[in-house]
Amino acid sequence: MAVTPTQIPTEILRLLTAQEAAEYRLVPFDCGSGTVRCYGEQSRDYAEAVEELEVLYGWQVEVVPIAADDLQRLLLQHYRPGAQTASAAATGRTAEIGQGRQFLFALVGEALRDNASDIHLEPYEQRCRIRMRIDGKLAERYVVERAQYMPLVNQIKILASLDISEKRLPQDGRIGYDRDGEKFDVRVSTLPTIWGEKVVLRLLTRRVELLELRNLGFSERQYDDYCCAIARPFGMVLICGPTGSGKSTTLYATLRHLNALTDNILTIEDPIEYTLEGVNQVQLKEEIGLTFTAALRTFLRQDPDIIMLGEIRDGATAEMAVRSSLTGHLLFSTIHTNTAWGAVARLADMGVHPYLVADTLVMTVAQRLVRLLCPHCKREVAADPIVQRLLGETAPGSHFEAVGCERCFYTGYAGRRAVYEVIPLDDELAAAARAGRADVTPLLSERGIPSLRDAVVDLFRRGQTSLDEVIPLLNY
């Protein structure tokens, strides 16, 4: 049975380079018994192309005709324009990958062009693959032969100053990257698996000059409330959410907003993702005793005005964070909870007394990242019963869905934005925190504070995102 276009394995796609696929107007989708089956354009004569490919590679080529528009869609979806250099290096003919550095930098360059945040190199029993995370979703790009995988991993480890002889323990490092005069870091993490070392490259590339609070996704009211909270001379502001929800971006934008010549700003981070001129940033080094708790203790002797703590992970760190807030400092940090109010219970679980939470916490913020529909191809459709059932009275009469076009490489989405739940603590909410109340929904409703659910549904009603992005947040 023919493989559907969305299920074409990467190793089959790489039988042709991007340049060859465009030149021959062919997209391979199946391979077996020496025969390669390709999608081709209807009413086009492929006799010469088939003969050339059979001579070049020794395949028997079978062309399955499809509409010209469908073929163009597949070409743009699987062979992105400008990707010929990396694609040619990553075809089934992978001898060049052993050289390492050239392919690696071409791979990073492709990830930058496609706005990927991470590159995953993963070994398996029969194959090794390379995937990129774009707009929060992983997409498979290349397949590497097992014989070529370890030289590539060793090249990465050498560039990141890691121990290439150590394959049993995880390692972390960094690679400096200079692209057209713009310097940034690629964070490297290795993990031993049963088939070899998995490597993840995190691209720390976003220019901090572009991090503006107003552009992150706050509503007007949320922006005003947040600016009032961070203008306080002391207290604690917590950003809540799972890994990958954009918490660090919000913190850096906040520090950039507050950065002034009259303030002493200290941060302890793991890792330092963006550097800020005028901010004293400290890299966590637990192996030598430089932990969050130890750094905070030292910060209090450094005459700080504002402290940024990368993450509250345990009771000792939580206690020092509260202590810092009580001694007249403004402290920002992140904490892993699903909702903004969940931070109150989480601190209590870590051993912080509720009355201390109530006295120090000035605001909690929960956030998530939501993919935005491509403005060039999104399609308006009538709301179906599923939308009515899920959203009830808030369901719109029509909504937009993802389609896919050349500009979004047929994903249907282009970029992401944050949605927020912002809770400034007033006297009544502080009393609720002191009493350890787990549910303050009625109090938030009285104040008209929108939840994460409300924020993402509002994006959906305005046609900026799809139902698929709304459903995961309906319970918040």
Task: Kindly list the characteristics that best describe this protein.
single chain, 476 residues, alpha/beta, seven-stranded mixed sheet, six-stranded antiparallel sheet, 33% helix
Question: Would you mind describing this structure in some detail?
Answer:
The chain is an alpha/beta fold and about 475 residues long. The protein has 18 helices and 18 strands. The chain has helices spanning about 10-15, 20-25, 45-55, 70-80, 85-90, 100-115, 145-160, 220-230, 245-260, 290-300, 315-325, 340-350, 355-360, 385-390, 425-435, 440-445, 450-460, 465-470, and strands at about 25-30, 35-40, 60-65, 115-125, 130-135, 135-145, 170-180, 180-195, 195-205, 235-240, 265-270, 280-285, 305-310, 330-335, 360-375, 380, 400, 415-425. The strands form 4 sheets. Strands 12-11-13-14-10-15-18 form a 7-stranded mixed β-sheet, with helices on both faces. Strands 6-5-4-9-8-7 form a 6-stranded antiparallel β-sheet, with helices on one face. Strands 1-2-3 form a 3-stranded mixed β-sheet. Mean pLDDT is about 85; it is low at about 1-5 and about 85-95.
Main sheet properties = 7 strands, mixed
Count the beta strands. Answer: 18
Report strand %.
25-35%
Can you tell me the overall shape? globular
Q: Tell me the distance between the termini.
A: 43 Å
**Level of helix content?**
25-40%
**What is the count of helical runs?**
18
Provide the structure class. alpha/beta
* Overall radius of gyration: 26 Å
Cross-sheet strand order for the largest sheet: 12-11-13-14-10-15-18
Low-confidence stretches: 1-5, 83-96
Average residue pLDDT = 87
